[in-house]
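From: lab user (bench 3)
To: helpdesk
Subject: output format question, protein + NAP

Hello, I'm new to running complex predictions and I'm not sure whether the block I got back is the full result or only part of it. Here's what I submitted:
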Amino acid sequence: MAGSAREIRLAARPEGWPTADTFELATVDVPAPRDGQVVVRNTVMSVDPYMRGRMNDVESYVPPFEVGTALDGAAIGEVVESRSDRYAVGDTVLHGLGWRDYAVLDAAHATRVDPAVAPVSAYLGILGMPGLTAYAGLVRAAELRDGDVVFVSGAAGAVGSAVGQFARLLGASRVVGSAGSPEKVRYATDELGFDAAFDYHAGPVAQQLREAAPDGIDVYFDNVGGDHLEAAIGAMHRHGRAAICGMISGYNETTPQPAPRNLARLIGWRLTLRGFLVRDHADLRGEFLDRAGRWLADGQLSYRETFVDGLEHAPDAFLGMMRGDNIGKMLVRL
Ligand code: NAP
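Helpdesk reply: Thanks, we reran it on our side. This is the complete output you should expect:
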């Protein structure tokens, strides 16, 4: 299927918050697929916080995006041309070439998704990378135990909303969350089943956490960093564990955030703070999909998605997600 298509490129590296000038919409020719490749018409793509880090020219666990070339990231689409035995025209696949209308890629780099289990967009959220992040963070990084009191920040987002529900399903005795608006707080308590939640804009995090978890916490799942991490360290029981998943409050800062002022508590309270990356836990994917698929099917797990329409609005979706416009997973429908 030769023809032209659109892609979003990195136009310039942002200093601090990205702006519209960070991105550029370009029209390109769709290359003809080689043997072993497929052409996928993308139908939905993900915008994720880690993409902000890739806009900086710094050494990290993934290479930076290059100025003048297309961004990439998880997307789902329909195979429209196939030169591989693995996929036929009409198959739905997950792959890593989002931020464009059409992706041409090796079939080996695509994964089939099952539309019978859930709408396919779920494979970018609750059944995808964010869901696995929540599961691996709880099970491996935090070593969740029966009866633990769990606190998660970013509780209404893609990862955080999964953390709260998985924690309960995996045996937590109390689940507490923080989020950025009264609506998100209600979502956490009324829809996701959190025992308590608070709006971190409404007062000091440490004080609100003390009220939400008066007897302290065993596990903190950190999506935010900054004052949230300091408050969680201050609330932890002896031998408490923190899964350090993300620190989004600092992603657009131009100077490093100060460290928590109470780190000495790690010693006396024998606390563990463990950073982790979901990519190191791909071996859990089968177990995770099996359990989460069953929880979804029997109504024990719920999720929401916030959609923005049109590839040309993908930068708005990304910026909106960084600002907190999303409830659940932020996605772009193409
Ligand atoms: P998300 O929570 O769906 O969306 C980002 C949310 O961050 C926004 O909705 C906003 O919600 C919140 N936020 C933005 N600025 C904030 C601030 N200054 N203080 C507190 N909250 C703020 O995103 P996600 O994909 O689920 O990712 C959540 C975290 O997990 C991120 O830190 C991300 O980097 C991390 N992550 C890590 C891994 C890993 O392998 N370690 C994998 C995936 C994601 P509010 O309205 O509540 O502020």
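A quick orientation on your result: Residues 4 and 28 are 5 Å apart (CA to CA). Let us know if anything else is unclear.
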